[in-house]
Input
Amino acid sequence: EDQVTQSPEALRLQEGESSSLNCSYTVSGLRGLFWYRQDPGKGPEFLFTLYSAGEEKEKERLKATLTKKESFLHITAPKPEDSATYLCAVQGNTDKLIFGTGTRLQVFP
Amino acid sequence: ETGVTQTPRHLVMGMTNKKSLKCEQHLGHNAMYWYKQSAKKPLELMFVYNFKEQTENNSVPSRFSPECPNSSHLFLHLHTLQPEDSALYLCASSQDYPPHQPQHFGDGTRLSIL
Output
């Protein structure tokens, strides 16, 4: 059964304090791993798609990496506006998106 | 108008009411989805429509009835709901199905069942 586990459940950072969010997965035939950002009262906003182990993608202070078992979302020198819930999802042979429960990130000035 | 728009944003209804949620996408996509998001739980896929045809029904109770009149519009008709149906209902779209491109989400309808 396809499964996604995200950790930690919640993360509090001081502005400028870099850290990483983890997404561990098991899936039959990975077709893509997706990262989304969700602000309170909003729908998920697409950030990245990773397709194969070793792939990396960057956007501003965010960098996503992928191995055969997990993905990391690295946040470098975060700002308060980076506060949100970050969702990870995988798509395998079933073609359905399987989501994790998310990591709630709070960045304090 | 851009992206995926959902109305209403908030809905409170009794267990015996009938209401409908509406989703409209302006992205020219061919596939549309309904998801349920409950606190502390992952997003749950409910229905998938591709070119107006239902391709997935994820064992959703019959009190939820989807309708897709065209590739731009998606409805979720609700009747005789239960308190556990209180959640955020999200609509999404993608260029095609199976999705080879990311799904784009609306901001959801927050549903509360009294």
